[in-house]
Design brief:
There is one protein chain. This protein folds into two domains: about 25-115, no CATH class; about 160-300, Roll (Pnp Oxidase, Chain A), CATH 2.30.110.10. By secondary structure, it is of the alpha+beta class. The longest helix is centred in the N-terminal third of the chain and has 16 residues, at about 90-105. The chain has helices at about 75-80, 90-105, 135-140, 150-155, 205-210, 225-230; strands at about 5, 25, 40, 50, 65-70, 70-75, 110-115, 160-165, 165-170, 175-180, 185, 190-200, 215, 245, 250-255, 260-270, 275-285, 290-295, 295-300.
């Protein structure tokens, strides 16, 4: 498969549509009489990506597309018809995408929208395999500049499942704590863990001033515990949750997967978050399954088949 051809319509002329994938055109590698382009994805009208399943020299043929140097021109009429029946809102967003391309000179007098063809030869696997990256071209063809929309960025990170930590310490006459779903192991020697906390967190200053911080990796049946620890009502975060306080003041929650008694070794500001580096002093664990956070929802590991 040759590298993808992509139009310049990468901005958001059609408004806030589905960001999962761009609109994708596939050009067949064989072009018998009457062959047509196909459209595999039709929801996101902010970007338009053409995938070419053949070498660029084979692109001459049907009137639905034509080659012009290092560009491909695709019929807007054929493109719309291949998307099937859509509602008025979809057609409005489609028109907005084409209007955007027209303003930038990416639509010709014959009603074709332009896509660039990258003709650089693919690198070859020295171990004897096929062209490097050939197997993933199809999934990576929609790479684009990162959106500045915060919701889109959160959705992107939400694709990666994580565990959930309860970070807690004794503060005055009560426990203080919060749930954290962004963390990482940092070092084995010394044993270090990083937790990534919103810079505006009102709970973090209490934890940062504690001599030790308890870290409990929540179990699969602790959805409600995670929700309470994430609630804005800090007074009710530990309601109904069993916990213990170590002699050093770390608060550890019952029923968890892993318990760590830690102390703050360092903290670094990174964008809108703080990276807290925690040195692990003591630990214990159970055989429970962990709670996962994926696509902004709590879930658990599937049982092995």
């Amino acid at each position: 498969m040759a590298p993808p051809a992509t139009t310049g319509t990468r901005d958001d002329p059609g408004g806030r549509g589905n960001r999962r994938r761009p609109m994708i055109i596939t050009i067949p590698d064989r072009q018998p009489r009457g062959s047509r382009l196909t459209v595999g994805e039709v929801d996101d009208l902010r970007r338009l990506s053409a995938r070419i399943d053949c070498g660029a020299d084979a692109l001459d043929g049907p009137s639905n597309w034509r080659r012009d140097g290092d560009h491909l021109w695709v019929s807007i009429r054929a493109l719309r018809s291949q998307c099937g029946e859509k509602d008025q809102d979809w057609h409005g967003r489609f028109d907005a995408m084409i209007d955007f391309a027209t303003r930038h000179g990416w639509v010709d007098d014959h009603g074709h929208v332009r896509a660039h063809i990258d003709q650089d030869p693919a690198p070859v696997d020295s171990a004897g395999g096929g062209p490097v990256g050939a197997a993933v071209d199809e999934e990576m063809a929609d790479l684009a500049d990162l959106s500045v929309d915060h919701r889109d960025i959160r959705d992107m990170f939400a694709l990666v499942p994580t565990g959930v930590l309860a970070m807690a310490a004794w503060s005055g006459d009560r426990p203080a704590g919060m749930a954290v779903s962004s963390f990482a192991t940092v070092s084995i020697d010394p044993p270090l863990l990083s937790a990534h906390i919103r810079a505006e967190s009102s709970t973090w200053p209490e934890l940062a001033s504690a001599s030790t911080i308890g870290v409990s990796v929540l179990a699969a049946d602790q959805h409600s515990v995670a929700r309470r620890l994430s609630a804005s009502d800090t007074a009710g975060r530990f309601h109904g949750t069993p916990y213990t306080v170590t002699p050093s003041g770390a608060v550890l929650l019952g029923g968890a997967v892993l318990w760590l008694e830690t102390e703050l070794a360092d903290s670094v500001t990174a964008g809108d978050h703080l990276i807290a580096v925690l040195r692990i002093r003591r630990s214990a664990h159970s055989d429970r399954a962990p709670l996962l956070f994926h696509r902004s929802s709590f879930c658990e590991l599937a049982a092995p088949s």
